[in-house]
User: Fold this.
Amino acid sequence: MAELIIDGHKIQAENGTTVLEAALNNNIDIPRLCHHPELSVSGGCRLCIVNLEGYQNPVPSCGLACEDGMVVTTKNETLSGLRREIIDLFISEHPLDCFTCDKSGACQLQKYAYEFGVDKTRHEFEISKPLYQDDNPFFIRDHQYCILCGRCVRVCEEVVGASAIDFVKRGFTSQIGTPFDDPLKDTTCVFCGNCVQICPTAALLPVSRLDRGREWELDRIKTICGYCGVGCQIEYALKDGEIVYAQSTADAPVNGEFLCTKGRFGWDFATAPDRLISPMVRKDLAFELGLTDENWQLPETSPLSVRNPKIEDSFVPVGWDTALDLVADRLAAIVKESGPDSIMGLASARCTNEENYIFQKFMRLGIGTNNLDHCARL
Amino acid sequence: MNFDKLEEIGNQERSRQEAYKRRIFCCTSTACLSAGAGQVHNTLDQAVAACQCDANEAEVVKTGCMGLCSAGPLVRVDQKGQDPLLYGNVSPESAQYIISKHVPIQRDDLTVDEDEMDQSVAPHDFPHYRASLRRIRTKTDFDRLIIPLDIPFFAKQEKVVLNETGRIDPDKIEDYLAHGGYRALAHVLENMTPEEVCNEILGSGLRGRGGAGFPTGMKWNFVRQESADQKYVIVNGDEGDPGAYMDRTVMEDDPHRVLEGMMICAYAVGASSGYLYIRGEYPIAVERIRKAIRSARRWQILGRSVMGTDFQFVADVRIGAGAFVCGEETALIHSVEGKRGMPRMRPPYPSTSGLWDAPTVINNVETMANVPSIINKGAAWYANIGTEKSKGTKVFALAGHLRNTGLIEVPMGITLREIVYEIGGGIPGGREFKAAQTGGPSGGCIPMEYLDSPVDYESLNQLGSIMGSGGLVIIDDSTEMPDFAKYFMEFCVDESCGKCVPCRIGTVQISKLLDKLIAGGGSLEDLEKLDNLCQTVKTTSLCGLGQSAPNPVLSTLRYFRGEYETLVQDAPAD
Assistant:
């Protein structure tokens, strides 16, 4: 435990925490752009500078480990002046088209420019970076908006382990790039889009997000991803009931801010017109049970041989109770007729561990068979 | 092989050398090579062979820098019983003459025909070389090539690091042994504990010669006290300041001295592996260091059992890929690891977590080259040289508007006036001294009124400059200071790695402001903005490159503000 003073507040910090973390834990906000709690320290944006007693020059708090007796000042006239100057430098090479920018409202650079009252650059405006690259169906990379905070590089290396991108060129012409400037699909990129999520500006944006409204117009719904058993929390941003993009929030219990490519980009099924939204029973069975008036017969040829088969042609939607009753009745009948070993259960990796456990319990005790398998075993 | 055997080899080499009546040294360091020393050396060799004299009459030795690079190619003749003679601006023709003058010729057909000299074609394309040929027409002219060795350029210097360069053949380990090489290492291995070595270096007051001046002994002690299975030593030979070539010369001309210093360091801190990081623009340094490593391995000076003791050490070369910022220690470590050369924040310092997270000592080439002398002659001897806080000597690459330019080694605390007017021989062309620029693009300009201030770490810092790695550029009054500052600013723009904002964008904006001022379109407000921006970049940049990048502008603003104001006042009113 280290005891230090930040802005006059006595603060206890665990050993190994940085001054920035200690300050944030105690609701003292320090401006920052390249810092991300899940990633290693970069120290490139220089916004989180603080004054440390005994030091002449300001020190970046993101890399400063807490020590006993430190006296830290996070806000004063000099620091604000320096931060203002740094933001001024940032926007001297950043398109100032917040009026039309899709990121407006969620952009960190915009936020700090607002906080420090930087309305335009006092320097000569010049952008050396190339225009956007649209080399994949998931997100665009617009280098002009890039502030080279390096978060995407670090998340790719440290969280995803793909290391598909890195800084290329140097100095003023530095940009984030792939090896030999190959298209992303030819690199180790897995298109998880975590770089898109933690990009503080509009340099990385989901294609689905483009021209779909301002950040503050979007509704947000949290749900659990159904693609696998991990159970990641996803937050969908919706405009008029249509999903605009998917992301995750830091408070998501399983996945934090990170998602895989399916969860992040594979959501178009959610509002697809042919999506199944209730259990369905085959029409001939439904007729027997009196659920439909249509006396439909199972065709001689397989329904799959029909071109573009429509599910409504052979199935009718029913309620969950009806469906479960039907399944239970039929299973019981089969057990009675042919014995429990005539039934086999195959569980899915999309289910959670708990669901799989319950399933095997149901098969062994409910049905009475050990005929069990799981798709992940194959 | 133990040290007695090595000493025997050294003694044999010494007696072999002493058997010659005269030894002719030809500088083949980069500066002289680019002035045509390769041909001069070949001519000397052939001329001696053509003399058909006795084998012990003369030996031509390919050697390193003799210091006065502006007069290169340099040839020195050491004759037994006579004072050594130094020839400057030697061409292949004058090389023939030097041989004919000093070596008894057994054949008559080889005397130089002075009338034909003009027609002699030099297979060369160096303009200054042709100029030197034009100057030399007659025999008496040849004698004018002799540079007296008692001029202040030589007399004022005190050589520690450069003691052997210009005297030994850098490719021959025997020559280094003959000049007392590896004696310090043997002494350390036999008679000293690592702690004693660190304290000896600490006691000598040696400070890092890369520019920041951190006490070397203290750095070694930090790493020595770390407990780790693996520690590393890195020699920083990524010398990038424009005009600076001290480290290059030491690596090219006395590579074994660097290796020996490195190994003493490794023993002192408990490292068993080390890297020499050499910039890719120094192919000769790379070649000679590699050769030195090979021969040291052959003689079991490097390897599993150094000189028959338990101490083991392996050294390897890493070549830089052209980034100035890789001279910064954390960026250098990234580069050695095979990553992009970008600095990271400190702490943790490399002494706790450096190369591959192991405790690492990083010292400059010149720092390492000081170490063998300190061990050989003692900390007290070294501490006797220099000022109270800056001990020892410093090598400077003296350049700019001076009569004598080249590589000099002077005791710390020498005044700039002594360097400029005595060693440098003053400003040529009837011009006046204007400023001295130390520390390359990270340093600042020191004006006339501080000519008498001593050259040491503290004084230079007070004047708004830094010691730096040792570039020293003298400017006369024909130079406009804003132009001069612009040159260094452009260098920093090119060399910024792009990681932190103040350096990446700030340097570009400073450069643009300077452009605007120089073009005459600036206002007083711009001058104010320039000052502010420089302060921001200086205080908020991540690494030393950015923090010191505005120094040339800030120091010229401090001492030559008038010149900037003239630019503003001359500007047409808005």
About this structure: Residues 114-136 of chain B have pLDDT under 50 and may be disordered.
